[in-house]
Model the fold of this input.
Amino acid sequence: MSDPAELTPAELLERLQRVDLPTLGHHLEQGFVSPAIRRLGQPRRMAGTAVTLALDAPDATAVNRALVALRPGEVLVVDMGGDHRHAAIGAVTAAAARARGAAGILVDGVVTDVDTLMHLSSGMPVHARGTSCLTTKRLDGRGGRHQVPVDIGGVRVAPGDIVLGDANGVIALPPASLAAVVHQAEVSDAAEPGLIRRIRAGEDLRTLLHLG
Done:
């Protein structure tokens, strides 16, 4: 077993991509984004490093600048500052993120073009609170702050945090917090199929569920 402190970011992400996200919920209490934020894009696992944008106005130019700055493997994390009416992400912006090699998009707000997002051939995972026809506008680009700590669904997300998402929800935590539990999660995942088989075979539930 690798020492958690010795895991490179790439090694940690590779291992986390194989862990069931609900398994992490057995070993962690922090970092779980509000279940009001759910997957609205392609049914793919999201796993990458956070690049943050705090949007102080419905400024599409600020969003576009953040998109152009994305690097492969990053997740664009957008804090709408409580604006749940203007959609900052749609088909074009999701395609642009994919073109930059992004691993996903996480928005504490709404998105648009949801039918296209769900069937986009690029396979971009997008997580948000819901959908809207009202969109951001091309303003002066000064309505957003790039690479600052943001609040997403009750979780403080900093640039460089790891962001994980699937159909169950989203987790965002510093790499060290996830490295500390990744081995435990792998062990739990490996044991679960056998436990389910024993339950189905009729073994005593009190013993299997550790009730004495």
User: Anything to note?
Assistant: The two ends are 31 Å apart (CA to CA). The helical segments are 9-16, 21-24, 60-68, 91-99, 114-119, 175-179, 182-200, 205-208. The first helix runs from residue 9 to 16.
